[in-house]
């Protein structure tokens, strides 16, 4: 009997990084580990779970955009709900970061941040999907935007959710419906 393949929060981080690498088949598990602050063993397990669940096709080193979009928009907030914390210094996320911050006018006292010692913005803490998310986001602006959109989906407020969903669909190249 095989072990159950239960999705973990770091799997979402890996899947989103693969979205940013779309078309680049030259990446190695060792590269993902370095870029995302995970061990090579954890990368191997993440890829295995993502492949098993149909969110990626590992043999082609390709994300299944439709399945990933469906999970992110319909299941993510239930599997990985948001956890808020106190005011802290960190990196803006959700509607407080691009691209949503360009479309929404949010009062500065409602800024959401991932707690991060190298962050330059003060706001209410929104704990990231995985502890290495701020580190990973600093290395890759495209990944940062995907992660902030995912946080907007996790928060689940209607207006932010709809905008984040549209932006995510564009980045995953999902045809408009």
Would you mind describing this structure in some detail?
α1 crosses α7 and α2 crosses α3. The protein is built from 8 helices and 5 strands; from the N terminus they run αααββααβββααα. Strands 3, 4 and 5 form a 3-stranded mixed beta sheet that branches. Strands 1-2 form a two-stranded antiparallel sheet. A hairpin with a 4-residue loop joins β1 and β2. Helix content is 47%, strand content 13%. The mean pLDDT is 93.
Question: Short description, anyone?
Answer:
The protein has 177 residues and is of the alpha+beta class.
The chain-level structural class is: alpha+beta
Summed up, the helix count is 8
How many strands in all?
5
Low-confidence stretches: none
Ends apart, CA distance between termini: 41 Å
* Largest β-sheet summary: 3 strands, mixed
Run of helices and strands: HHHEEHHEEEHHH
Helix content: 40-55%
Strand content: 5-15%
Q: Measured on Cα atoms, how large is the radius of gyration? A: 16 Å
Shape: globular
Mean pLDDT: 93
């Amino acid at each position: 009997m095989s072990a159950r393949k239960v999705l973990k929060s770091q799997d979402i981080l890996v899947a989103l990084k693969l979205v940013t690498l779309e078309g680049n088949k030259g990446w190695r598990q060792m590269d993902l580990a370095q870029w995302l602050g995970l061990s090579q063993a954890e990368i191997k397990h993440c890829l295995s779970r993502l492949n098993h669940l149909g969110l990626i096709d590992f043999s082609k080193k390709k994300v299944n955009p439709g399945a990933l979009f469906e999970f992110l928009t319909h299941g993510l907030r239930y599997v990985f709900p948001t956890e808020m914390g106190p005011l802290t210094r960190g990196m803006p996320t959700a509607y407080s970061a691009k691209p949503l911050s360009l479309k929404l006018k949010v009062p500065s006292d409602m800024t959401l941040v991932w707690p991060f010692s190298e962050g330059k913005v003060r706001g209410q803490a929104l704990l990231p999907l995985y502890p290495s998310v701020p580190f990973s986001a600093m290395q890759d602006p495209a990944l940062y935007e995907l992660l902030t959109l995912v946080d907007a989906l996790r928060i689940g407020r209607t207006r932010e959710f709809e905008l984040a969903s549209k932006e995510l669909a564009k980045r995953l190249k999902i045809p408009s419906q």
